[in-house]
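INFO batch 0412 | record 1 of 1 | parsing
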Amino acid sequence: MSDTAIIYYTANEAPASFAAAVRAQIVKAADGLPIISVSQKPLDFGENICVGEIGQHVYNIFQQVLVGAKAATTRYVAMAEDDILYSREHFHTHIPSPGVFAYDMARWGVFTWTDPQIFSVRVGRKCMSMLTCERELLIESLEERFAAYPDKENIPLKWFGEPGRYERGLKLTIRPTEEFWANVPSIMFTHPAAVAYRVIHGTRKSHGTIRATEIPVWGRAEDIAKFYR
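INFO prediction complete | emitting C-alpha cells
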C-alpha cells in the first residue's frame, strides 16, 4: 500500500488534546505514507489544506474529502477521521479491487459516556472513516454527487452517506463495495463533539452486539477511553 495517501478531514470540533492524540496515532499507523489534512482551522499536520470554518455538516465532510482526494497524487486514498485510533494494519493490509470501495470492518467502538467502559462491534456496518479506494474512483463518485446535489440544505440526508452504500437512494451511478478485516482493529470513539452524536443519536445510540472490556493490542476499554479528554 505504498501508493496510498491518507486523507485526514476534520471540523476541528473534537477536544484539542484528544485530537492531538489521534493525529499522533495516525502518524504511527501511517508508517511513512503521506498525509493530507483538510481542516476548518489551520493545522500543522501533514500537507494541510484549510477550507475555512464552513461548519460541521455531513455535506461538508464529503466536500473536505473531495478536496483532499484532488490534492493527492497517489493511486489510492485512505480516509482518516479525527476521532479514531487507527492501527498500522488498517493502512497496510488490503489493496482495493479496481473500481471498488473497500471498507475495513475490523473496528471496535467506544462510547465516551458509558460507565463502566466497554468495547463493542456493530456487525456489517460500513463506515466512511474505514474506506480505502482508488483516488480517481472517489473523485468521480463525489463530483457526480455534488453535481446532483449542489445545495446542502436540500439533500436527502438519510442517503448522503458512504460511497457505494447509498447511490440507489441518491439516484446516482451504483458502484460496488468490498469488505476486508485488518489483523489489528482500529478504535472508533462516539462522543458529544461528533456530528452523528449531535445530529442523529446522542446518547440514544446502542452498543453493538459483540462486546468486550479488553481486547488484544489495545488493552482495556477503560484505559482507551481516557484518550478522550
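INFO post-check: The CA atoms of residues 5 and 77 lie 5 Å apart.
INFO record closed
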